[in-house]
Amino acid sequence: MNRVDTGLTVRGGTDRKGRAEAIASLALDAGESLAVVGPTGSGKSEFLADLEQAAAGDTPSGRIVTFYRDGKSVSGPGLAATLSQRTHFVMDASVGEFLRLHAASLGKDALRLAGQTVALANTLCGEPMSGESLLQRLSGGQSRALMIADIALVSDAPVVLIDEVENAGIDKHLAVEILSGHGKITVIATHDPVLMLTGRKRLVMEEGGMRRLYELDAAEKLCLDRLRLLDETLISARERLRRGERL
After folding, report:
1. How far is CA 171 from CA 130, 167, 190, 240, in A?
2. Residue 10 forms beta bridges with which residues?
3. How many Cα atoms occupy the beta-carbon half-sphere of 136 within 13 Å?
4. For the segment 50-99, what is each residue's pLDDT rounded down to a tens digit?
5. Cα–Cα distances in angstroms (integers) from residue 112 to residues 86, 103, 115, 142, 154, in the given order
6. Most distant CA atoms of the chain, gap in Å
7. Rounded to an integer, what distance in angstroms lies between the CA atom of residue 180 and that of residue 175?
8. Helices 140-153 + 95-105 axis angle, to 10
């Protein structure tokens, strides 16, 4: 899928009080990342659900979501891939078998993509896996790393919806970079300040409605650099403590 040929638009509906959403329309292009922010209960998950369902004014929000390819609107399954905190495999197979089946079902080079996907997944989590690893024995972090790599390299879905990736046991920043780098539109519901500022756009939800839309400015870019340093320090301390070391 060509990253310059895909996109989506969201036409605003109403919030939970029946008021017109302050953001009347929102557009995202291939490779863009949008952070969806707001306190618990503000409507972040409902917004992701509207994207996943390609809402056509038929959800409580009344939003209309349109996907585009080559300048024309498209519909059907497989337009949005969803990654949540709870990722479990029920398929009784190895990692390699799963990846080869997925790639083959899309008419892609199964052997090559399976190897590349495993290698990419291993850059995202601290517990390496192989093509022979059993899906049902993967840890939570390994499962999510595998799904992100699969979405980036194998899946044709142009849009990726991520809910709370900061608690997923993976390198959250690298995950977003990988997906955006492969032309995916990445929409992330998050409470993580670094992830909030990583994307160029940030949507603020309130009372179930799209309330404000920001674009990263120069001042926030400086804040992002400082927050990344703090975050790296915390991640390093966490990993050392997990390994049984002392700080």
Report:
1. 18, 10, 14, 15
2. 26, 65
3. 4
4. 999 999 999 999 999 999 988 888 887 778 998 876 666 767 899 999 99
5. 28, 9, 6, 20, 11
6. 57
7. 9
8. 20
Integer Rg of the chain from CA:
19
The span from the CA of 40 to the CA of 139, in Å, is 27
CA distance linking residue 107 with residue 101, whole number of Å: 10
Q: How far apart are CA 79 and CA 55, in angstroms?
A: 12
Structure tokens at 26: 């929102």
Written as six digits, the tokens of 141 are 């972090």
- Cα 22 to Cα 204, 211, 215, 232: the distances in Å are 10, 5, 16, 36
186 near 203, Cβ under 8 Å? no
CA distance 228 to 196: 12
Fold (CATH) for 1-79+158-216: Rossmann fold (3.40.50)
What does the pLDDT read at residue 62? 97
Q: Kindly state the tokens that stand for 86.
A: 């709870």
Separation CA 159–CA 80 (nearest Å)? 5
Instruction: Give tens-digit pLDDT for 161-178.
Output: 988 765 556 777 888 888
pTM: 0.84
Q: Is the pLDDT of residue 23 over 90?
A: yes
